[in-house]
Amino acid sequence: MKIGNVDIKGYAALAPMAGVADTAFRTICRQFGACYVVGEMASAKGLCMSDRKTARLLSVTDAERPMAIQLFGNDPEVMAAAAVKSEEYGPDIIDINMGCPAPKIVSNGGGSALLKDPLLAGKIIESVVRAVKVPVTVKIRKGWDDAHVNAVEMAHIAEESGAAAITIHGRTREQMYRPYADLEIIRKVKEAVKIPVIGNGDVTSPESAKKMYDETGVDLVMVGRGALGAPWIFRQIEEYLSTGKVETNPDVKERMRVMVEHIKLLCSVMGEYPGIREARKHAAWYMKGLDGAASLREKAGRLAHIEDIERLAEEAIRLNT
Question: Which residues are annotated as a binding site for FMN?
Fold first, then answer.
């Protein structure tokens, strides 16, 4: 598929998870076959105010391409100005977040709050599209709640406003992340527009990726929580959709090797002190399903130095071989 002039060659993309989809994680996922990655959402207002923390979210490396920077906000002019600033970081695509359900974002009129104001949403998309040279995409949800399901309307508006692609998460804002994603609404969005549609929600295995493709007809699936502690899911999806079977089933030694590589990369990007603290949650995710997982996760929560992660990996291997 193509998003504007950007070729996307593969089977699954990495979702823009706040506090997770940083440079290190995006790079590891790309190594395992993620065909497209989206960075953590950044505040348009913060970017325009030259906030350092916001600017750090916008790093783009060649190892991550094709990669999108994601912005959130509710003012068309501010969003356009932020898009111009973010374009200086060299993203392949700029994505507009109109789906985040977090109360902090919604209470300020951003994220999924824009589902309640389609007219404003359209103005934001138009402003950003006019302001930048790279393709602009939009991420939405099914609707605000079950009484206000308007994903198809939002998709039409996005297309008419110049968006190059749409990502649809198959839940309302009220549902947050439960229960199961609605594949029917994703199918309806795909049928309603001519631009590419990316399906998001509950893609946690090769089988669920195939189900998303089969039941919705989307151009691409997006993986979020299914990649936590398991970046190899992208390769597994590719194998399953290509051959009907999965060859990539890493044993504990390979899992721990990937974890150590991931966390060392994270520390090299952020510095050891902040990096190892950020790594604690990732290390805990890598322990899922292992013998002694509860104790290993508890130790992951106390990591203080890079050497600690190597010792944790050795213990995990010892307990599981």
Answer: 16-18, 70, 139, 169, 224-225
Alpha carbons 277 and 296: distance in angstroms, whole number: 16
Q: Specify the pairing of strand 165-172 against strand 93-98.
A: unpaired
- Which among 219, 249, 220, 257 has a CA at the least distance from the CA of 233? 249
Buried b (16+ CB within 10 A) or exposed e, 116-150: bebeebbbbbbbbbebbebbbbbbbbbbbeeeebb
Q: Which domains does the chain have, with CATH numbers?
A: 2-243 (3.20.20.70), 252-319 (1.10.1200)
Burial 177-212 (b: 16+ CB within 10 A, else e): eeeebbbebbbbbbebbebbbbbbbbbbbbebbbeb
In this structure, what token pair is assigned to residue 43? 């505040």
Q: CA 13, 16, 17, 20 torsion: positive or negative?
A: positive
Tokens 């007219």, located at residue:
119
Indicate which residues carry an active-site annotation.
Answer: 100
Asked if 88 and 136 count as a contact pair (C-beta separation under 8 A), the reply is no
CB 264 within 8 A of CB 306: yes
Q: Are 93 and 137 in contact (CB under 8 A)?
A: yes
| Dihedral angle, C-alpha 54, 43, 7, 215, nearest 10 ° | 130
Q: Using CB atoms within 10 A of its CB, is residue 9 exposed (0-12), middle (13-18) or buried (19+)?
A: exposed
Averaged over successive runs of 10 residues, the pLDDT of the chain (321 residues) comes to 97 96 97 97 93 84 97 98 96 98 96 98 98 98 97 98 98 92 98 98 97 98 98 98 94 98 96 95 97 97 96 98 93
